[in-house]
Amino acid sequence: MATNSYVDENGQDDGYTKDGTVDLKGNPILTSKTGGWKACSFIVVYEVFERMAYYGISSNLVIYLTEKLHQGTVKSSNNVTNWVGTIWMTPILGAYFADAFLGRYWTFLIACAIYFLGMSLLTLAVSIHGLKPPPCANPTAADCKKASTLQLAVFFGALYTLAIGTGGTKPNISTIGADQFDEFHPKEKAQKLSFFNWWMFSIFLGTLFANSVLVYIQDNVGWSLGYGLPTLGLAISIMIFLAGSSFYRHKKPRGSPFTRMARVIIAALRKWKVQVPSDPKELYELDLGEYTKNGKVRIDSTPSLRFLNKACVKVDTTDPWMLCSVTQVEETKQMLRMIPILIATFIPSTMIAQINTLFVKQGTTLKRDVGNFSIPPASLGAFVTISLLVSVVLYDRFFMKIAKRLTNNPRGINILQRMGIGMAFHIVIMLVASFVEKHRLSVAKDHGLVENGKQVPLSIFILLPQFILMGTADAFLEVAKIEFFYDQAPEGMKSLGTSYSMTSLGIGNFISSFLLSTVSHITKKHGNHRGWILNNLNASHLDYYYAFFAILNLLNFIFFLFVSKFYVYKAEISDSLAVLRQELEIGSRHTG
């Protein structure tokens, strides 16, 4: 139910935002002078440069660890996924500080300073000769000198400093972007429905540059320039963001979301014997004025997760650990309801981790020369980007318009349906990857290349299908995932909700590390072969490993269908979506 409106009591728009956004000083702001795509243009350009910086490091990191720090296949791959996993887990802390204390803007800027410090240290680590082991013709050979403790400490210290910085930037920048559209204004609500499509488009523009130009520079010119350019790009992106400060709308921090949720759970447990009244009006709730004067939204009681309603049953105390408002209980329910969906995204996130690890390692075993040009293996990641960019445009400009006419849904299809299509793609991706790898191994065997591990006489482009399909899957699943966790989170917990989508990627990377180590160990110890994943990929069996992933994805897809069937979407806080749906119905009647 809407508890606010984009018009005043006389039916006129007074020009101010109605979603509780303010300027940096906490004053009400005019819709015409702030927010919208005008403000988002600075945020989106920031994201293009920042993603160029991040993927400029992560895309080729496994190659640096192998060739410069002389680490093996399993160790280098796990170091990448452990670091990327940390990158995507730290946003929980960034979201906490933003929602509870500092607000999104200031949390973001402080994190940017830490991020830039990490990038600068990393550039020094790859540039100073004393911080790298001496070069080696065969980096995986037993007599090749490994990196010292000091060298590893400096390099990984810089990487994890960078990870702390991204923990404050990632959950807040996309949330700041989405905050620029007023939920209570139908026109801005319609723009917001497309925001996350174009947000992912901007992310992958930066990624495309990193996976093509920066990866080529790192492999063929030098790592100092290859890391120095992303560092410069990050500095430029921060300045661009600051330039747009006067146009931004801000949401005030509303206290610790973890404390608010903990109070609900503990209050419900302490009153576990109390009966919940059948009439929701008998439950404890603050006056509507208490919410509207603070720019907050009151939420009506729902029957789902009914046990938590015990927290708002009236008792002879106002202790916040014994009595919570209906809105506080419903906010907690909204965050808890998303957890089964979050769990269902872990396995697809594990598949994404293969792009910059095993997929890249496969590329090193194939012919990469096109004339006098040698293709860097990590640059195939550019095809993920190109595929996603094309898919997002087609989705937003064509598929969405057709689906809207058929369903009268302003989104075209609902968010979970879009996620499900992406998950189905992941099953196909790993089957394709398994068949391609089986063919590569067959050619290696036919040419006697199994034992020596030399280059297989096949073009690196045989790997294109798995990269292209991954981009198409991301256009469905990853875009929908960010939108889902932002959209379904309560108004006061948007940063925390957005961090759910990043936590998914983090846990997916840790699962990838666990599975790679476990499968490698088990197959070496108990298998009929020397192992599925060896330093010599020609003697490995990545085809079996990818087939195993296809089965995992199938089982996960079944789990997703089950939990999504029982998921209850949160009620809209405004009537904007209903207005848009009504316009679609009128339009379809006229065209019919």
Automatic annotation (TrEMBL):
GO annotation, cellular component aspect: membrane
Pfam hit, one: PTR2
Keywords, in A-Z order: Membrane, Transmembrane, Transmembrane helix
Keyword tRNA processing tagged: no
Coiled coil: none
Protein location: Membrane
Membrane protein topology class: Multi-pass membrane protein
One annotated GO molecular function: dipeptide transmembrane transporter activity
Stated family: Belongs to the major facilitator superfamily. Proton-dependent oligopeptide transporter (POT/PTR) (TC 2.A.17) family. Belongs to the major facilitator superfamily. Phosphate:H(+) symporter (TC 2.A.1.9) family.
Protein name, UniProt field: Protein NRT1/ PTR FAMILY 5.2-like
